[in-house]
């Protein structure tokens, strides 16, 4: 279903660029898990460097110390073996004396073994099997082996005795092990102290990056901050680039905001007179007619003024003269509206102006004020002017259907035109129908229509810009009191009564039936209220399962404003319908389009640009640029872009040049060959 009033532009128009910045923020849901921090990486690097340095130091120092010890012990062994050889050579002492000498050497000189042979027999053998108190792997890795030093004594040129001495390396190996442990400990302490000190130091050095991150978060939230230039020169290019980006984004969004604000006013107001236009006035009228539950009906007055034979005035006064007349009339009516709070003056179309006065219960008072204000224009435009300005007025009560009120007002205007003298006519107060001025009346009427299947679809074509049929759009109509009411009349009441899910399901069944019968794609309007009902989504899935072939040709569209208010419910609806091949779209789009960029991945297929952006597009460059931007953004995320409310042929041609994918409106006609 569609609420026509929701298509009118409102004061909440916001820049799509600003919305996209928020979408960019939502896109981070796909980011990977955070990895190791920079401080942890640097600390790991310090540990690796410390281990590398330790291994390098040990690889250089241990072999050098081992070789030095080997040379020292070899020299020590040679001296000892020479001493023993001299003792023996000056006269073979007693064996007891030699043993005593060997024991002394071993006790004081750390010898592993001393062997003395004489005449082929072993005279002295002393061995020390002490093992170094170090890990076996260290001993093996050090590989410190000292070969025994041997001296041979001759007698009559014949070998008489031999002496062999080998130093004990255990003490040296233990000393090297202690030095290695001390070196390792110092490296570990140094690495630990460095890692501890790196934390505060790096945090201090990386403060500019924290500021940049805060600046980026502020950009997402549309806050534009500047970061001071840091002392670390490596960060200066990054800081300068981010500051430049923030300044440019601020300037761009400020310019867009001004442009969108101007476009918002332009879309909601008449370009010539500056008064609110028809869509904007209908929004205000709907708000005035709304009846709060439990409150008494309020009454007010509504008057319409028509510039009769405007085409003739254009010919007689010229374009500029006719425009001046319209501007003068608008100024006088604006003065009438400014006389009391809550009043509104608007221009409905080229020749019709309207004044809403909630403060006046008697329409006669309003018509008198209008007639008095307009009479001041006689001096400017001639005495015959009043005959060209018929005025009709009506009393209204809150809760009265807008369509019925406007029909009564048209009757009053027709009566005023019929007199030909510019006299105001007021519709009979008895025609204010109270039967539908409360919730109970609308509940009975809507339930009766649903029970009697008095619901229908009024189909309108949606064509591609080349004229091919995309689908038949089917707004819902409900029969009440022998009148077919459009969605703008009954949807507000149905939402308050909780009946929109039933009405939407009834429209869905009619659409699926039409598809099954005629094999033509049909588009159904779904209200945001129904979307949020879990039971509705389940019932919708059941209907689609019952008509799988028709479901593949079904187009479902929801109002942009309702979707933006509950993106989670819209995602759930998209996920529920995606298996059936339905096409999901958003109607009345444009004001909140930036928030919809992240929805194409759940099944969003198309958007329909609000009619407020389409009217008079061919002659309005601001509107044209805005629609071009919407098309570019929509196509960038793979969406079809359709323009709604195309009422003029020149706008239709301009939309084809812009690059929209489809159009609908009174200027769009289905070729006979395509008619279902």
From TrEMBL:
Listed GO biological process terms: signal transduction
Residue span, HAMP domain: 203-254
SMART domains for the chain: EAL (SM00052), GGDEF (SM00267)
Keyword terms: Membrane, Transmembrane, Transmembrane helix
Residue ranges of the TM segments: 44-64, 183-202
Domain GGDEF: 298-429
Family annotation (InterPro entries): Cyclic-di-GMP_PDE-like, EAL_dom, EAL_sf, GGDEF_dom, HAMP_dom, LapD_MoxY_N, LapD_MoxY_peri_C, Nucleotide_cyclase
Domain spans labelled EAL: 439-676
Pfam families named among the record's database cross-references: EAL, GGDEF, LapD_MoxY_N
Cellular component terms per the entry's GO annotation: membrane
Gene Ontology MF term list: cyclic-guanylate-specific phosphodiesterase activity
Descriptive protein name: GGDEF domain-containing protein
